[in-house]
């Protein structure tokens, strides 16, 4: 709870991944959970880590009966609210599944649009539009090329990941609201021989 409130994401991830039985729903005297306290302080990374570890997003404090989103809005943590909404829009880390295909669904449509034949009038309108349009810095689009690049480089099919680690449960990717097992719990569920045959010299990647 202290690590989440203070924004110590490395310590929080270490506790969640390496200590069995960590209760994310423990409350302080006012009834705040670690998730609510992280949201109050605007600790985006800690909020994401707790949600992807199975913390209850709908839990409310015992004094005012407010939930995570209520407190985030009340304290003006709009970046944290944006992070929560993005997680709700994409609650499953599909790139950690064996069935994930490293393809950008919109690429084919964009290529067809760019290479489609145009009339002289359409070309003229396009040039006028480009010359009269002011370009201002914008945030990356949802499901755009930046999101696709992140998914590709972190997927289990990426050479950067596949050569160094393998998921123990490739059919059960991290999901918002679903509790993940800590490494000691996974070692109890799977025998040493099974782990050696599965991973060999690779490191264990927790995704159950």
TrEMBL record:
ANK repeats lie at residues 30-62. Gene3D superfamilies: Ankyrin repeat-containing domain. Keywords: ANK repeat, Repeat. InterPro entries: Ankyrin_rpt, Ankyrin_rpt-contain_sf. Pfam families: Ank_2. This is Ankyrin repeat domain 33.
